[in-house]
Amino acid sequence: MPPPGVTIKSSLPPLNGFEFSALSDLLEQLGADGWLLYDFRGVNPAATRVLGIHGMGTRRFFVLLPRVGRPAAIVHRIELSAFEDFPGDVRPYAAWGELHSLLGPLVNNRTVAMEISPRDGIPYLDRVPYGVVDLIEWFGARVVPSGPLITRFVARWSVNDLVGHRRAAQALAEIAPDVLRWAGAEQARGIDVRETMLQRRVLDAFARAGLVTDHPPVVAFQANTANPHYEPLAGADRALASGDVILLDLWAGVVPRSVLADQTWMGFAGWAPDPEVQRIWQTVRAARDAVITQLRDGWRQPLTGVEVDNTARAVIREAGFGDYFPHRTGHSIDRELQGSGPHLDNYETTDDRALVAGVGFSVEPGIYLPGRFGVRSEVNVFLNKTGPEVTPAAPQTDLLLV
């Protein structure tokens, strides 16, 4: 690792292959003169993703991508190496007075799009600190949210992203049932099967399949399945018992910083689940499938994250479990597992961004009965130019009896 203040030069120049014509069109729709990208110590990963730069980021930078004209970058003198071959003007600063003297004329009397969300309505977008926005407005600029720009230039998948995601999704769809069946077979042999044992089994399967992940999977038995973000800990994890509901949430990709696949599979330790477990599973599955049907029928409109979340929530509410669905229906997936693109959400937030071609996200409704058990079913969707593609290609239809 380089010492603080030293920036690693990217293998490609900043903004390599950036679609300036598409940016110009979107800025015109927003009524903005440019996109003002800001970052400091990784607070706004969208900025470095768009620019295609990597480094320590220990000093502030501002980059204006104008609707008309040449881009301009204001960069600290000790971090200029990241901006070699920048396709525009690079204006160095060191002291804060220099920064202000360069930034003021750059934004004065302009409307600029930045990563903000009024009243923090969409926190996945709200990346620029209040003080920075205050500074830009003090210089006489008007700041508007950059939501459509984030969707278009940050959240969209490349061809290689989709290929890697498909491979990872297929691998997960094979690993999850195999691990659940293994748990049942071990239990039948009298082995004390614990949640952390299944977790290790999944990680070993990832290694054999050449997959990478940023966190071990969620493995939960019975009462622990009622906690959507439960994490098993050695020595405090639960042993599998006959009649237990089993939840396995696993995510992985083909290489670091690739678009991951993210799936949740459900099992039951026994010959047949009791009627209540079965009913809740069928309700969750129906909510998941209602969303998929809605996307297939209406993706051209396009739909918003709010509308899709409403669909899943209506199914669960109608079945009498509305109070037990305490999270959004799905999250954006890009180079981050919970990405910056549109989320399927009208519960935790109001994400009214359009679900446009090129973005991907999870669909994962759930019902959680505190202290008893929970059920979730999770698939992923990529919106291709020809419609939604669901992964895995064959989503779980019945509880896996292990």
Provide a descriptive summary of the structure in words.
33% of the residues lie in helices and 19% in strands. The chain has 402 residues and is an alpha/beta fold. The longest helix has 30 residues, at 159-188.
The DSSP helix count reads 9
Q: Mean of the pLDDT scores? A: 95
- Given the helix and strand composition, which structural class is it? alpha/beta
**Termini, distance in Å?**
47 Å
Main sheet summary: 6 strands, mixed
Q: Characterize the overall form.
A: elongated
Using only CA atoms, what is the Rg? 23 Å
Strand content: 15-25%
How many E strands? 16
**Could you state the oligomeric state of the chains shown?**
single chain
Strand order of the largest sheet: 4-3-2-1-5-6
Spell out the helices and strands N to C.
Answer: HEHEEEHEHEHHHEEEHHEEEEEEE
Notable traits:
402 residues, alpha/beta, 6-stranded mixed sheet, disordered N terminus, 4-stranded mixed sheet
How do the strands and helices of this protein lay out in sequence?
Blueprint: H1 20-30, E1 34-39, H2 45-51, E2 61-66, E3 72-76, E4 89-93, H3 96-107, E5 111-114, H4 130-138, E6 142-145, H5 147-155, H6 159-188, H7 195-209, E7 218-221, E8 245-252, E9 261-268, H8 275-298, H9 305-318, E10 332-333, E11 360-363, E12 366-369, E13 373-376, E14 379-384, E15 387-391, E16 400-401
Parallel strand pairs: 1-5, 3-4, 5-6, 9-16
Antiparallel strand pairs: 1-2, 2-3, 7-8, 8-9, 10-11, 11-14, 12-13, 14-15
Helix pairs in contact: 6-7, 8-9
